[in-house]
Give the backbone structure.
Amino acid sequence: MKIKKNLLKKKSKSFYFASIFLSRNCFTNCSQLYNFCRIVDDIADNNYKNKKFLLKNIYKSVTCPDTCKSKYVSEIKPLIKLNIINKECLKELIYGVLLDTKKKISILDKSELINYSYYVAGTVGIMMAKILNTQNKYAYRYAVDLGIAMQLTNIMRDIIEDANIDRVYYPKKWIKLTSKKILEYNSNTIKTINKATEQLFELSEIYYKSAFKGVAFLPFRSRFAILLALFVYRQIGRKIIKNNFSNLKKREIVSLYEKILCLLKVFLIFTFNFNTHFKKYQHDKTLHDNINSKTFLKSIIYEQK
């Protein structure tokens, strides 16, 4: 427990700050899921010569946890066996991370961007919703939106970091620049990048607003924690825009002081905004139009009545 807690605290300070308000059991399960996500991300991001083989082996171990053994799956295996998380979502997550193992990464358009974000983050949203004991499956639609919103924030924040390893997640139709051009920092490229960053920010806001509508579907205690996580993470993108596109200069973070301000704001909203406690079956289905029809979300969740 202590190791898991320290890893979450070290690697994801924003979510750790919000996770303090979860129950001990939910926190433990969330930590195990986070550790797994961190492992597959690190494999894809670091200079492993056999990264594709490792990820495919993890995929096989998730598919057949009893027959295929991988040391990377051992911690999360109990969650799979107890059906606390859905292994189909785990497989889709690994599929998305495998896309990151290409030598050069580029996204064609908004459609590809949303589809990619679903695989690497929307799936995590679904798994988190189940870990938090969300009984109503309709909530999963909003959980996907929170995952997508956070991934779009990551892409904004990490544009320079990604360009340094020859990755460009900004859609080509928005920004016709190679990673090399992004790193040149001349006036023309900066103007183009800033315009695309603004588009990405506006897109993330659409998904954050949708995710906010789904908070009411969560159990009471988890509701506060996830609402806080939403506000803290959303603050990253808002700071990038407010600080004159600071993502080209540094990796933007949310300070402890700002997190406390978010906490106070969430407390007021949680206490006085009754919309956070009343379920509304008004999800905008068009937000998922670009997601592959064969995914767990489309083939299972949307088919459930």
